Amino acid sequence: MEEDVVEIPGEVTQRLRVAEMVAVMTGAGVSAESGVPTFRGDGGLWKNQRPEQLATPQAFEKDPDLVWEWYHWRRGLIRESSPNAAHHSLVQIERNTPQFTLITQNVDGLHLTAGSKTVLEIHGNINRARCSSCSHRVPLSDETGVLTCGQCGALMRPDVVWFGESLDHGTLEASHSASGSADFFLVAGTSSVVQPAASLAYAAKEKGGYVLEVNLDPTPLTGTADVTLLGKAGEVLTALVEKTWDG
Ligand code: BV8
Ligand code: ZN
To answer: 238 CB under 6 A from ligand 1?
Structure first.
């Protein structure tokens, strides 16, 4: 069967080719083809709990064992996964663009594994733990159970931003400045519902940036983006790179 060719409008490749400053916002859809479940898709459920119920300080306070079990399980999936064509395409775009910033909501670290250099992990990274009391941080691999701090003995927690927690100020500042100065803003694989991440594309648009959305389904951003390409991020982003620089 002839591989269904992904149509990329000429306007998109022209703008990307001449872009001085590209900013990218990725979400769980970019890791979906690596086998990492998304949050709001059907694979997002775990033991019939929604991520919004488990990824909170309240859930951790109430049952650190359960929350740690969820994160150990997710890290196990990520250890089995590797970057997919979407991650690799974003590395290519970074290499072909004078200034580039990748802002990711994903905590799986797959962009770093793929070789992306300028990455802002605005929701943290699941492969690290931080102390709930002092500033101690440790890398994680196949740990299990509730972890305690080697420095002060307090509970360790995953080094991610939970719902109701504010994002790291410096990272958020850098994300806003990259979005506001981007002449090309690519949003890929996100339902664009989680704030403040979802507001960055609007900030880019307000400052005159050209916004391309790549997603499996339409989102609240779809009405505002200059172009929305519906499809799998791995396929669409591969076609985008080919048509912009090799085509
Ligand atoms: C804050 C880390 C306050 C943890 C995450 C009511 C209205 C508006 C806002 C709120 C509200 N109530 C509460 C809020 C605020 C809240 C929020 O936005 N809630 C949402 C649910 C409404 N935000 C917060 O709490 C933030 N903090 O606001 O602080 C504050 C202010 C001042 C001072 C103190 C406090 C913190 C938000 C960060 C939460 N942490 N993750 C962890 O991972 O365990 S968020 C979590 O959702 C992940 O990071 C994930 O990345 C993120 C967003 O989800 P997506 O990435 O978009 O994934 P999703 O499954 O939703 O969508 C995937 C998309 O991919 C789909 O559209 C699908 O079609 C597409 N797709 C699937 N496969 C593919 C594909 N696309 C392409 N190719 C494919 N193959
Ligand atoms: Zn400590």
So the answer is: no
With contact defined as beta carbons under 8 Å apart, do 180 and 93 qualify? no
Q: Does 109 contact ligand 1 (Cβ within 6 A)?
A: no
Confidence of residue 52 (pLDDT cuts 50, 70, 90): confident
pLDDT at 44: 64
123 is catalytic: yes
Please tell me the distance between residue 128's alpha carbon and the centre of ligand 2 in angstroms.
14
Rounded (to 5) percent helix, strand, coil in the chain: 40, 20, 40
Amino acid residing at 208: G
Query: What global pTM score does this model have?
Result: 0.96
Tell me the HSE value of 53 on the side-chain side, using a 13 A CA sphere. Answer: 10
pLDDT for residue 163 is more than 80: yes
